[in-house]
Amino acid sequence: MTKSKHQWNILVGALILVFLFGMIFPFFWILITSFKPDGEVFGNGAFRIFAQHPTLHAYYEVLFNKDILVSVKNSFIVATTTTVYIIVIATLAAYAISRFHFWGKNLLLGLILAVSMFPQMIVVGPVYNMFLHLHLTNSYAVVLPYSTITLPIAVWILVTHFNEIPLALEESAKIDGATPIQILYKIVFPLAAPGVFTTAIIVFIAAWNEFLLTITLNSDADYHTVPVAISFLRTQFQILWSEVSAATIIVTIPTLIIVLLFQKKIVSGLTSGGVKE
């Protein structure tokens, strides 16, 4: 039995290593490709781990000639704005769903989730026509349709966390004369802070990586976000893979720093609403 268990542990460990390799290898290959000149990306040296003539030319190009930092600024503005207004709306909606008893609550939650299941290709056409008539294309108003991607999951996460907060705390606050808004922002919101924080991070990353809506609604390069800007790192006949890799490394740094700094809060926020006491 012990030998069989040992063999099973070895097999599981090997599968985990294979899985980790499959997850990490693409990022590693992008990193080393960013230091290769264009001539070594393809051809005989394409599979060489270390470049024969390593260079920072791709980083120089994307930073100073391709204005990738402008796209980083646009992504930061769009992602931050989306996060703020989505958290406010999702907090109010989730609190109402969690605390008020009404017919069709579960149906409402199902409809909210169904919104996120609509393919973006179906949604983007009507959204583009509406933005065109309202003269909102080529602007930061692109944050408005981002709600179709981020709001449903934000509401679902926050409903779970609000359900875990005892009603006795709110009833005590009512006895002391607190208004519903005061109860929400002085009692419920602080207690649900891990879930709110986790939701904010998830919304920020989703908005940061969004591609289809931005490329459709903002054709002006001055409003391109990071994913769109990277997609234009090409010539008529060639994709500039070294520059694509360098830009990918640069724009991954902000989200990587956020996750590393707040990983404990993210994990606690994802797990704190998962156990009923």
UniProtKB/TrEMBL annotation:
Organism: Sporolactobacillus shoreae
Keyword Cell membrane: yes
UniProt keyword list: Cell membrane, Membrane, Transmembrane, Transmembrane helix, Transport
Coiled-coil region(s): none
Spans traversing the lipid bilayer: 12-32, 76-95, 107-128, 140-162, 183-208, 239-262
Gene Ontology CC, one term: plasma membrane
Cell location: Cell membrane
Segments forming domain ABC transmembrane type-1: 72-262
PROSITE patterns, A to Z: ABC_TM1
First-listed, main subcellular location of the protein, grouped into a coarse class: membrane
Superkingdom of this protein's organism: Bacteria
Protein name, as recorded: Carbohydrate ABC transporter permease
GO biological process: transmembrane transport
Keyword Membrane listed: yes
Family: Belongs to the binding-protein-dependent transport system permease family.
Upper classification of the organism: Bacteria, Bacillati, Bacillota, Bacilli, Bacillales
Signal peptide positions on this chain: none
Membrane topology term: Multi-pass membrane protein
